[in-house]
Design brief:
about 325 residues, alpha/beta, Peroxisomal Thiolase, Chain A, domain 1, four-stranded mixed beta sheet, 13 strands, globular, binds oxa(dethia)-CoA
Length: about 325
């Protein structure tokens, strides 16, 4: 076993979505929009919203990770490291991973957050896989979690219709038979930051009365520009991943795309030569939960996955950040 290459296999999946639903009908009462427009332009019918005083992103991470531990029959104390992809951390610091570890009783874990917007789960997964592949860590939990409702302006009809809240998590463990995370192509391009960002609250523009009045603590998005880059970025990188692994759409059991817009998902699937039956889509129920979309899909489809399935995860998001990851399913 000592000579065999270590890969990082996903050995359990957990997820959490809040109970409260925000439907298209609800949004019709809040902004000038309608169900038909939202469904035809995005594919979304409803999203989940985390409500309640004092509840934050870590409060969605915790149930997702607890569920995963129960499924695998391990205690949180056995987790070596927790990585949380998020752009809605509980606080600027300490990290949400840190806070979640304390709430979980994951006393032996270290942890950190990854800020890569909608690609947060993919970036975190690559990082977590590298920790496992190094041979130094045996149980790494990778989570994608966002409470987007905390940074969405519910008077801005172009952004509030898209986003929702949720968290998903996977457990990575060493595998010696070639299962798990096999390859990733990840990209960043900071010139895209102008199209999707939060203007204030960072060191560039600390919070003041003026920034609050100017609504600069909400997510700002130029939807059409992001859309154009997303369609090309997600499709290009997914096609490149297949090509460099000598695979075609026929070899892929599932595409797990970031759920930002049904039209972006369709374009990526077409480019990869995949029929709709092989594409995980739950955007209609949860909207765009940013870093949580991909692990929430794995969570919902986990009973349909078979050992040996080739799965491609693909994302595009703020930054710009984007990428695709190839996984061979282990259990
Ligand atoms: O996950 C992170 C990355 N983010 C994304 O991938 C999101 C990418 N972008 C998108 O998904 C789409 O651009 C949106 C869903 C955000 C917007 O859809 P669109 O088809 O690009 O709409 P648009 O911004 O081009 O607006 C078309 C029209 C405009 O009206 P006029 O100027 O043609 O009269 C908008 O004012 O639709 C109007 N509009 C709306 N109408 C009803 C914009 N938002 C709404 C709305 N309800 N909520």
């Amino acid at each position: 076993m000592a000579n065999k290459k270590i890969t990082a296999a996903i050995t359990a999946v957990g997820g959490y979505v809040p109970e409260d639903k925000l439907t298209n009908a609800d949004l019709e009462k809040m902004v000038d929009t309608n169900d038909e427009w939202i469904r035809s332009r995005t594919g979304i019918s409803e999203r989940r919203i985390l409500k309640g005083e004092g509840l934050a992103t870590s409060d969605m991470v915790v149930p997702a990770v607890k569920q995963l531990c129960e499924k695998r029959g391990i205690s949180p104390e056995e987790i070596d490291c927790l990585i949380v992809g998020t752009v809605t951390p509980d606080m600027v610091f300490p990290s949400t991973a840190n806070i979640a570890c304390a709430k979980l009783g994951a006393k032996n874990a270290w942890g950190f957050d990854v800020s890569a917007a909608c690609s947060g789960f993919l970036f975190s997964l690559t990082q977590g896989a590298a920790l496992i592949e190094s041979g130094r860590y045996k149980k790494v939990v990778v989570c994608g979690a966002d409470k987007m409702s905390a940074i969405v302006d519910y008077e801005d009809r172009t952004t509030c219709i898209i986003f929702g809240d949720g968290a998903g998590a996977v457990l990575l463990e060493p595998n010696y038979d070639g299962y798990g995370v096999l390859d990733s192509i990840l990209k960043s391009d900071g010139t895209g930051s102008q199209f999707l960002h939060m203007k204030a609250g960072g060191s560039l523009k600390p919070a003041t009365m003026e920034t609050v009045m100017a609504k600069e603590h909400f997510a700002y998005q130029e939807g059409q520009s992001v859309f154009k880059f997303a369609v090309k970025g997600m499709a290009d990188v997914s096609a490149e991943l297949l090509e460099r692994n000598h695979l075609t759409g026929d070899d892929i059991a599932w595409l797990v795309p970031h759920q930002a817009n049904l039209r972006i998902i369709d374009a990526t699937a077409n480019r990869m030569g995949l029929p709709k039956e092989k594409v995980m889509i739950n955007i209609q129920k949860y909207g765009n939960t940013t870093a949580a979309t991909i692990p929430l899909c794995l969570w919902e489809w986990k009973h349909e996955l078979n050992k040996g399935d080739n799965i491609v995860l693909a994302a595009f998001g703020g930054g710009f950040t984007w990428g695709a990851t190839l996984i061979k399913w282990e259990y």
